[in-house]
Structure formats: structure tokens, C-alpha cells
Amino acid sequence: MNDIPHDLLGAIDRLRKERNAVILAHYYQDDDIQDIADFIGDSLQLAKAAQTTQADVILFCGVHFMAETAKILNPDRVVIVPDLTAGCSLADACPAPLLQRMKDKHPGARVVSYINCSAAVKAISDVICTSSNAERVVRSIPASDEIIFAPDKNLGAYVSKQTGRAMHLWPGTCIVHETFSERKLIELLSKHPLAHVIAHPECELHILAYAHFIGSTSALLDYTRRSDAPAFIVATESGILHQMKKVAPTKTLIPLPGMDENCACNECPHMRKNTLEKMYLALRDLQPRIEMDEGLRQRALVPLQRMMALG
Ligand code: 13P
Ligand code: SF4
Asked: Does residue 131 have its Cβ closer than 6 Å to ligand 1?
């Protein structure tokens, strides 16, 4: 119906040049999308890449909040996505009016929001964080201030443990990271006693308790490159294994499965909506586009800039 060319990779490459477009992709994208991207990264690295690009068009292969962040940082560039419906369970779990109600109950509290949230939530937050800098962001808030942490209660609980700061946690979770099975983790550890468990902080605390290393996607990738361990049990979305195989080709990489034997629950159903076909169509039609009310954009920019200023 849409005249998809046979040589999809060639067609994407041609259009990318014609449009002066940059293709940004998150580590959770399918392998073929990662391979054709100009830049692959975690959410902080992607936000920084979006901030510094000189391209006229940003094709963002990730989920909606990531592309929205690129637009907040780049009002004058065209930001397109392969699939506008690629959302995030964390962003969906935290509508701005409900977060506002929580703020009203705790007047004076500082709101730290994980970047996995809508522009409307960013706009009523004091500062944004990602999984790479959440601890640093929380530590930057004066000890006398109350903190509301939204929308990921697992990341919030982890940061609270690391920093010793009590926080009011919004009850959101990631549908991928809450699914990991402790029973399977124990089984895998008994089969691979020398393996290191590496986990994203969106996992529940009882999974994190087994981890030799906890970090953002890029930090986990870096750990597989520099650690001496012969094997890694990977407790995050399995898309990251594509780059891990490249940086640690001699290591055994074991994706931790979810609790349901019959589902690929360690794949994010939102991230995996993006395809090469949809990338081609987005570059051809410059649609779907991220558009935003300018007032909202300016309000959402302030807490993002505070995060960027923290380094
Ligand atoms: P990163 O900050 O590690 O990219 O995590 C983003 C995300 O959505 C994890 O589920
Ligand atoms: Fe959201 Fe989880 Fe998917 Fe990341 S993996 S985009 S947090 S649903």
C-alpha cells in the first residue's frame, strides 16, 4: 500500500541524506534499527545528542517521551518517529493532573521526575533525571527539602536506598523490568556460578539484591566491556545484547527471562513497534511528527536544563 522499496536500507540511507536527517536510536531497538542509526545511546546520551545535532530532521527511534524530549530541546527542528503510538508504561502511569494532586498534598516538596514521563509532567517538575544521573540529581537537593520522585517507584526506591533520602514515590513501574523472575535468576546463577548479574535500576529491589552491578543501559554495556567475569545475566530489555555481543564477543550473555514462560516479556512492546518500514515512511513523509504547544515546551525545558546543568 505504501510502496515500500525492496532495498529498504538503501532507501533509508538516501532519504537520510536528502533530508539532512540524523537517526537516533535507543539500545532497546531491534538490531537492524541499531545498525542503521547514526547514534545509539541511553536516554541521557540521546537527549544530549538531540541537543547538539546540526541536522534539520531528527528521526527518533525509541519511544514517545524520548522524541518529545528531543523536541523540547529542539523547537526549530523537525522531530519524527517511526510510530507515534510507541509509549511507555511509566509515562502512562503518571498523568500530570494526578501528580499535581500529590504536589498539592506536599506543598514545598521538590519534584524529581524520571525522564520517562510526558512533557506535561516535566512542566510541573523541578528537575528531571535519567537512570544515569538519578542519584546525583537527588543528592543535589538540599537535605532539608522533601522530595516527590515520579513516576518509577523501583528507581525511586533504589535511589532512596543509595542516598539515604526518604522520598514520596509515585507508584509507577516499567512493564518490562517488573517482570523478571527471581526463581529463574536463582536457577541461572546455580548453572553459571561465575556469572555476574547486571541489572537496570528499574528492576524491583528483590532482583537488584542479586546484582553485581546496577546501572543505566550504557553503564551496563560498559560493564560487560571492562569486567573480567566470563558471563553476564542481563536484567534489562534484551535489545541491549546486540551491542554487548559487539563489545564483549568472548563473553557468555544470558538475558534474564520474565515470569511467564510463553512471552518475550524482556522485550519492550513499545520500543519494538518501530520497524525499518516505518522509519522509511517517516523519512519519506516527514510524518508522524512531534508537535508541542510552545508554552508547555518552555515549562518542560526548565527542569530538563537543570538536569543538563548538573552534568
Ligand atoms: P536508560 O536511561 O538506561 O536508557 O533507560 C531508559 C528506559 O526506558 C529503560 O527502560
Ligand atoms: Fe518504558 Fe519500560 Fe519500555 Fe523503557 S522498557 S520504554 S521504561 S515500558
From this structure: yes
Q: What angle do CA 171, 174, 179 make, to 5 degrees?
A: 110
What fold does the segment set 8-87+271-291 form as a domain?
Answer: Rossmann fold (3.40.50)
CA–chain centroid gap for 144, Å, is 30
**Domain segments of the chain: what residues?**
8-87+271-291, 90-173, 182-255
* pLDDT digit string, tens, across residues 240-279: 999 999 999 999 999 998 888 778 889 999 999 999 999 9
Residue 274, amino acid = N
Ligand 1, atom 8, residue with closest C-alpha: 116
Q: Measured at the alpha carbon of residue 124, what is the angle toward residues 118 and 130, in degrees to the nearest 5? A: 55
Q: Which pLDDT does position 271 carry in this prediction?
A: 98
Task: Compute, in angstroms, the gap from residue 26 CA to the centroid of ligand 1.
Answer: 8
The single residue listed with the C-alpha cell 494532586 is: 101
- In the CATH hierarchy, which top-level class contains the domain 182-255? alpha beta
Q: Tell if the pTM clears 0.85, that is, is over it.
A: yes
Atom 6 of ligand 2, nearest CA residue:
88
The number of the ligand nearest the C-alpha atom of 217 reads: 1
Cross-strand bridge partners of residue 254 = 233
Backbone torsions φ then ψ of 222, nearest 5 degrees = -65, -35
CATH of 90-173, one of 3.50.50.60, 3.40.50.1240, 3.40.50.10800, 3.40.630.10: 3.40.50.10800
Contact 15, 291 (CB under 8 A): no
**Percent of the chain with pLDDT strictly greater than 90:** 95
Residues pairing with 142 in the sheet = none
